[in-house]
Specification:
The structure holds two protein chains of two kinds. By secondary structure, chain A is mainly β. Chain A contains three helices and eleven strands, in the order E-E-E-E-E-H-E-E-E-E-E-E-H-H. Chain B is globular. Chain B starts with 18 loop residues before the first helix and ends with a helix. The chains are: A mainly beta, B alpha+beta.
């Protein structure tokens, strides 16, 4: 995602990410996640903490009988936890696996055109922009477009792919 | 099951079909025809006559017409020899007609499916083929069971017929599917069986062997077809040609066929009588019954055309006794078919989903039932409605669960086959007695317990049972008995494997364990000593066959059983035999769990893993080097594992004397887990922890608790291991 040389905005690979995004807030920052990855938005459900997992794994919830893990995006992005800030969960499907992420509030579904999307600028080592597909500027607002697959599948979060594989195998045995 | 599938013997043969189609129909009919089945013969005759009219080749028309006429005489009362001759002729004619037809077909046309054995036919219906594979596997399983029954009782005419029918059905359907190789093989297997049926060869020794191998081979062929469906090339299983040659050789009375034993020959007229009686297929039952019916007249009086057997008794109202006799008679004749018609094959993933959803429904319902609004004084009517719905939901759950239950019978049959083969290779004489085959178990469990049982049976035969000479020397009958029984007990399925062999030798096991440093005391109960054979590495290290042999891989067996949340127990008496009892939960989907509180969190511990729970006296607790805590229970010292520390739970009880200790673990490695409180035992639906969290140490899964929250199931063995590894770095740091 991070092209070595910044290209003109209109032809950058980031422009290929034009489309509809569900936007949400963490603190004052607006984020967008591709609408096709989103399965549903649910209110906060009681979370069961899972011991011995990284701190940004909030735990698991019972989503209509299915047990799915919940990732704390604030924690994942190294943002300070704010008690009571989060109001809902977005359930996404990443590589066939259901996961929930907690966010402060969901905003809207916005369509971004190729013109509006630019490559994320480099902040040096201070901010990892690898999680971003690009940045959308629309009506004077900036929305950070998340590469949700990347956010949730990097080795430091969860080895989702491996886990999904083993689950697939076990269901084959049935 | 197959109601939607055009049966190979579909009688609705098209009347105005093209000659080629008619020809195919006839060929099909001929392949699966049983001489003696008049209805089918008549169909063949009609088709031949149609062909004779349709064909343009004058000679062929005459020949076909002749064959049809010959068949007609057979139909109207010829003997079997005539029928066979007429059929052979018809067969020949149809084959040559097909060859001619193939020759006249456009050159571009694919070779006739029957001629190619290397690939699947192009026009094959994959769904149909899958159904065929599933059904054929049932046939094979039934055939195998019948073959084994036949071996112990060679006079079992019904068993011969079952096998024969199995091969026959596979042959016919495979031909219909264009699977020429399967069909051909089944044909030869069937031929062998027909010789057994007709008492031309005795079913013993080599014949039995070949017949059983033939069932295996058909299984292999089916597996190849299944693989080919997935895109793989259609392989020939190893040894196919050899076995086929052997079958063919036997068909022609080759050297491999043992001459009929004297016993068979002596039977003479009696055997012939049986064969004749057997010759009447089930279809004839009705006719025979009708003839027997003591009350045919009233039916005839009421309705001018002779009433069908079904309506006759209803109208004429014969005495009860007669009616019942008729009912049972028919059931015996048509039981198999009846069952097939009344069952539906359902994909297991759908079934699993159904059970999941029902599980959720149960929880949702209990949440409603526990809602204060449902219990408020002014809501009496609501409360009764809720409780009514609750009853229905529980019924539904029971029903859904029962759908997944299957009898143990197929598992036992596989073991029976294993016992047979092992007895042959080890030269031991064994009689396998099975009991409780109808005991039901979750179908997911069936697959998983198969391996441990195989292992145990192998051990029992290899090491448990003595050789015939040793047995006689020990004053026992030369033939050992292996008793395999299954039954339900206390919400579990128990499978017992009992042999009357030499039994476990307590002294030798103890000596061995001491040498390996597993035990330091002689004060062990027999049960504790026998449990030592499950210790990893106890027996695999060196030759153990001198210690009554048990033990090769028994740790694996135990681990497998425990992974199913089951237990395994041994009882044994020297010289009298050994009994292994495997106790398994009825289903893996639902488990009995003890809900425990640790701090503010709740966890589930599988009840099967808890030996006991107690609150220790302070005097029973001691520490080692000021840190490792131990508890003394009935002279057994075991380490205390603080669950809250391992799981990082804040504000939990840290003083064992103020909490509850749960004793878990193996005989020689018991551990006491410290928790705050026991909250009660529940039946829980087990779920995976969600993808991505599958490998969390110390946690084996999740369950939805009564309040809708997720409860984590503790992986007891994992926790204990975790506690050990945690201790060591801590010690080295200190």
């Amino acid at each position: 995602m991070t092209a070595p040389a910044p290209a003109p905005a209109t032809t950058s690979p980031a422009a290929a990410h034009a489309g509809k995004y569900l936007t949400f807030f963490l603190d004052a920052e607006a984020y967008g996640v591709e609408i096709l990855k989103v399965q549903e938005i649910i209110g906060l459900l009681p979370i069961t903490r899972v011991p011995r997992t990284p701190s940004f794994v909030r735990g698991v919830i019972n989503l209509r009988g299915k047990v799915i893990p919940i990732i704390d995006l604030r924690g994942k992005f190294g943002m300070e936890p704010v008690a009571g800030a989060e109001s809902c969960m977005i359930v996404v499907e990443v590589q066939g696996v259901q996961l929930g992420v907690t966010v402060d509030r969901v905003s809207e579904v916005a369509a971004f055109t190729a013109d509006e999307i630019v490559e994320p600028p480099s902040f040096g080592t201070e901010v990892d922009t690898g999680y971003l597909l690009g940045i959308a500027r629309s009506a004077g607002k900036v929305t950070l477009l998340l590469d949700i697959d990347h956010v949730l599948t990097t080795a430091e979060v969860l080895d989702i792919k491996a886990a999904a594989l083993t689950e697939g195998e076990s269901s084959d045995q049935r | 099951m197959s109601s939607s599938q055009p049966g190979p013997s579909d009688p609705s043969a098209p009347s105005a079909a093209a000659p080629a189609d008619v020809l195919d129909d006839v060929a099909m009919l001929l392949v699966q025809l049983e001489p003696g089945d008049t209805a089918e013969l008549e169909q063949v005759r009609q088709s031949l006559a149609r062909l004779a009219r349709a064909t343009e080749d004058f000679d062929a028309a005459v020949a076909l017409g002749g064959a049809a006429t010959q068949l007609a005489t057979v139909v109207s009362g010829g003997d079997e020899a005539q029928a066979a001759a007429a059929l052979a002729r018809a067969n020949h004619l149809v084959e040559s007609a097909m060859a001619r037809l193939d020759a006249t077909r456009p050159a571009a046309a694919a070779p006739a499916p029957a001629a190619s054995g290397e690939t699947l036919p192009d026009d094959v219906d994959a769904d149909l083929l899958r159904d065929f594979i599933v059904e054929s596997r049932d046939c094979i399983a039934a055939s195998e069971a019948a073959l084994l029954a036949l071996e112990s009782d060679p006079d079992d005419v019904e068993a011969v017929n079952t096998v024969f029918r199995g091969f026959h059905t596979i042959k016919g359907t495979a031909a219909f599917m264009g699977l020429s190789r399967v069909s051909e093989f089944a044909h030869h297997a069937e031929s062998l069986l027909s010789r057994v049926r007709d008492r031309e060869v005795a079913f013993a020794g080599h014949v039995a062997d070949v017949a059983l191998r033939a069932t295996d081979m058909i299984g292999g062929l089916l597996a190849a077809v299944e693989a080919a469906l997935g895109g793989a090339p259609l392989d020939t299983p190893d040894g196919y040609q050899e076995l086929l040659d052997e079958l063919v050789a036997m068909e022609h009375g080759g050297a491999g066929v043992g001459a009929p034993g004297p016993a068979t020959r002596d039977r003479g007229p009696a055997a012939a009588g049986r064969t004749a009686a057997r010759g009447a297929p089930p279809e004839h039952h009705d006719a025979a019954e009708l003839a027997d019916d003591p009350h045919p007249a009233p039916a005839a009086v009421i309705g001018p055309p002779p009433a069908s057997p079904a309506t006759a008794p209803a109208r004429s109202g014969p005495p009860d006794g007669v009616d019942r006799r008729r009912g049972t008679d028919r059931r015996q004749g048509t039981d198999r078919r009846h069952d097939a018609e009344l069952s539906v094959r359902v994909r297991t993933d759908r079934l699993d989903r159904l059970i999941d959803v029902v599980g959720e429904l149960v929880i949702a319902q209990s949440m409603i039932a526990q809602d204060p609004a449902a219990h408020a004084a002014q809501n009496q009517i609501l409360a009764s409605k809720v409780s009514h719905a609750g009853k229905l939901v529980r019924d539904l759950q029971e029903l859904a669960m029962s759908m997944r239950m299957v009898p143990m019978k197929p598992t036992f049959q596989k073991l029976a086959r294993l016992v047979r083969d092992l007895a042959q290779t080890t030269g031991k004489q064994v009689e396998l007695v099975t009991d409780g085959e109808e005991t039901e178990i979750d179908r997911n469990m069936v697959d998983v317990i198969g391996d441990p049982l195989v292992h145990m049976v192998r051990n029992a035969l290899d090491h448990g049972l003595e050789s015939p000479a040793d047995r006689v020397a020990a004053g026992k009958p030369a033939t050992g008995t292996l008793r395999l029984s299954a039954y339900h007990a206390g919400g579990n399925v128990v499978v017992d494997l009992q042999d009357d062999g030499r039994g476990l030798d307590r002294a030798k096991i103890l000596a061995k364990a001491r040498a390996k440093g597993l035990v330091f005391t002689d004060k062990l109960s027999d049960g504790e000593v026998f449990d030592l054979i499950f210790a990893p590495g106890f027996s695999t290290a060196d030759q153990i066959s001198d210690i009554s042999g048990r033990g090769v891989g028994m740790d694996v067996v135990k681990r497998n059983v425990e992974s199913l949340r089951g237990r395994i127990e041994i009882s044994s008496a020297a010289g009298q035999g050994t009994t292994f009892s495997v106790r398994l939960p009825l289903t893996l989907a639902v488990t009995d769990g003890m809900l425990v509180r640790v701090g503010a969190e709740r966890y589930v511990v599988p009840t099967a893993l808890i030996h006991m729970s107690f609150r220790p006296e302070r005097g029973a607790l001691s520490t080692v080097n000021g840190r490792g805590e131990m508890v003394l229970l009935r002279e057994e010292l075991m380490p205390v594992v603080h669950v809250h520390r391992l799981l990082g739970v804040p504000d939990a009880v840290a003083d064992p004397a103020a909490g509850i200790l749960m004793v878990v673990g193996d005989q020689e490695k018991r551990t006491a887990l410290l928790v705050d409180e026991l909250l009660g035992q529940h039946q829980l639906v087990v779920k995976s922890l969600g993808a991505g969290l599958a490998a969390v140490p110390g946690i084996s899964g999740a369950a939805i608790l009564g309040d809708g929250r997720v409860g984590l199931i503790l992986d007891v063995a994992g926790l204990v291991a975790l506690a050990r590894t945690r201790d060591e770095p801590a010690r080295s740091a200190a």
